[in-house]
Design goal:
single chain, alpha/beta, 4-stranded mixed β-sheet, 2 helices, 39% strand
């Protein structure tokens, strides 16, 4: 049996707010299906859905998105007004550079080059 990824779902406290952050970052129109469920279909990517849960985030993500950009520092500056924050500094090695970020609810993602 082979499965197909239908969507990636992030647990969160405010689906309507978080979907707007990710739609601004990746493109697509945010959709609020209910107060507890929102989603966006970014161009060229699988649907990202946001599901309300009662508990807050308490530990590091076990999975995160690496988003390829031309300049991780410039990308980090661009999403800061949307509520994202940097985690540490820019890391550069032989494969390229990356900047760890957190979305407005603390979910980690990285801007990467290379």
């Amino acid at each position: 049996m082979r499965a197909h990824v239908q969507e990636l779902v992030l647990d969160c406290g405010d689906p309507a707010a978080l979907v707007r952050f990710w739609a601004a970052l990746l493109g697509g129109e945010p959709v609020d299906r209910s107060p507890d469920w929102s989603y966006v279909d970014p161009p060229g990517f699988v649907r990202l859905a946001f599901q309300r849960v009662p508990e807050g985030k308490t530990v590091k993500n076990r999975m995160h998105l690496d988003l390829e950009v031309a300049d991780p520092e410039e990308a980090a500056d661009g999403v800061s007004p949307l509520g994202a924050v940097r985690v540490g500094g820019l890391v550069t090695d032989a494969q390229g550079s990356f900047q760890v970020m957190r979305d407005p609810e603390g979910n980690e993602f990285c801007f990467v080059t290379g």
